[in-house]
Amino acid sequence: MTTMATATVLGGFWPTNGVNSLASMSGESEERRQVAKALGHRSLMNTREIWRALTGAAPGGLAQKNLTRIAASPELGGQRPIETVAVVNRVTTAADVTEIVTDFLTYTTRTTFGANPPPNLDRNPLGTR
After folding, report:
1. How far separated are the first and last CA of the chain, in Å rounded?
2. Domain membership flag for residue 116
3. More confident call, 102 vs 84
4. Which residues are CB-contacts of 72 (< 8 A; sequence separation ≥ 6)?
5. Which of 28, 65, 71, 97 makes an SS bond possible with 49, Cβ 3.0 to 4.6 Å?
6. Nearest C-alpha neighbor of 96 from the set 50, 36, 33
7. How many domains does the chain have?
8. Does 93 share its domain with 47?
């Protein structure tokens, strides 16, 4: 069972930026936390948004995620322009469902050699004969 604990933030960085309370999770498995942490990385943000668009819906929903960053400037000083970068901005398809299932669910099944595994006569961990 997942329970949420909430801490009220009284001063510092977070309240200055509009965050007045922070929540923590307890009761979640380590694997779920690792997946959540991995999907929070910039490299998987597009997958996360496509997954979010597909959750509870058929393909055809809009997957959209934008980030802001400081734009490059030839000048050394002064105010830097802020630009918006689209990580993903498209309609989901059935191929997205297949890709997510392949990427995240294929390693959950065990592989087996069947009834007659190949002999490993020299006990080499690479399985040579």
Report:
1. 49
2. no
3. 84
4. none
5. 65
6. 50
7. 2
8. yes
Amino acid found at 49: E
7 domain residue, yes or no: yes
**Do the domain assignments include residue 51?**
yes
* 4 and 45 co-located in one domain: no
From the list 3, 48, 41, 5, the residue with the least C-alpha distance to 23 is 5
pLDDT in tens, 11-51: 777 777 777 877 765 655 677 777 777 877 878 888 888 88
Q: Are residues 16 and 44 in the same domain?
A: no
CA distance 14 to 85: 24
For every residue of 69-104, DSSP letters joined together read: EEPP-SSSSSPPPEEEEEEEEEE--HHHHHHHHHHH
- Residue in the block written with tokens 């630009």: 83
Rounded Cα distance, 117 and 126, in Å: 14
* Helix or strand run (H / E) with residue 45: helix 45-54
Q: What's the predicted TM-score (pTM) here?
A: 0.46
**44 and 25 together in one domain:** no
Structure tokens at 57: 């819906």
Encoded tokens for 111: 């592989």
